[in-house]
Amino acid sequence: MALKKMLLVFSIVSCSIATVYAQKDYVVTTQKDTLWGKINDYNLNKVKYRQTDSSDKVKYSPLEVDAFHLEKKQEDYQAVQPSKWDKKVFLLRIEFGKISLFEYVNSFSGYKGASHTIVTWYASKGNGIPIEVKSNNLIGSRKDRKDAFYSLIEDNKTIAERYLAADKFSFDQVREVIKQYNTEAGK
To answer: Where is the signal peptide (predicted)?
Structure first.
């Protein structure tokens, strides 16, 4: 009998822990309400969320949700409309601060079934429109991207001068400059 009680308690505790873990994802609505639960699926145009395992899934668009968080992956997505895009989409936010950095990964099959992945990074200052600052795409002007990035940091003379002196434009350099900018902006 004691073994049955221990198994029952263990089962209840296990289910409770699983439920608590599953409800660490959240969405932030455009009304600034935070809804805790489980995110089951997402892409550029939607996020599917359920409050509990027994509740129905609810599908939200980037017009209804400002952001969402995936606890297991430790990732944050934000609804933004990058320059030259015709609608809002969910992009992975990899830096957050006075300047935010977003990542868009586009994988597709090309000539003779070869797979290709193009990664494009966008940055925005405050609530501004995210502008393309870096990409592994061969199409587009590197100079335009460098100029766009510089326009975001030029108000901080120290950071801007360090960036120009380094004369690098790798993704790691862009991300590091944004981190430095945000750290100094927070002081």
So the answer is: 1-22
pLDDT interval class at 7 (50, 70, 90): very low
Angle CA 143–76–183, to nearest 5: 60
**Domain 1-69 CATH class label:** mainly beta
101 within 8 A of 125, measured Cβ to Cβ = no
CA-atom Rg of the chain in angstroms: 21
CATH 2.30.30 domain span(s) along the chain: 1-69
What pTM was estimated for this model as a whole? Answer: 0.82
Q: Mind spelling out the 3-state secondary structure of the chain?
A: CHHHHHHHHHHHHHHHHHHHHHCCEEEEECCCCEEEEEEEEECCCCEEEECCCCCCCEEECCCCEEEEEECCCCEEEEEECCCCCCCCEEEEEEECCCEEEEEEEEEEECHHHCEEEEEEEEEEECCCCCEEEEECCCCCCHHHHHHHHHHHHCCCHHHHHHHHHHCCCCHHHHHHHHHHHHHHHCC
Evaluate if residue 28 carries a pLDDT over 70.
Answer: yes
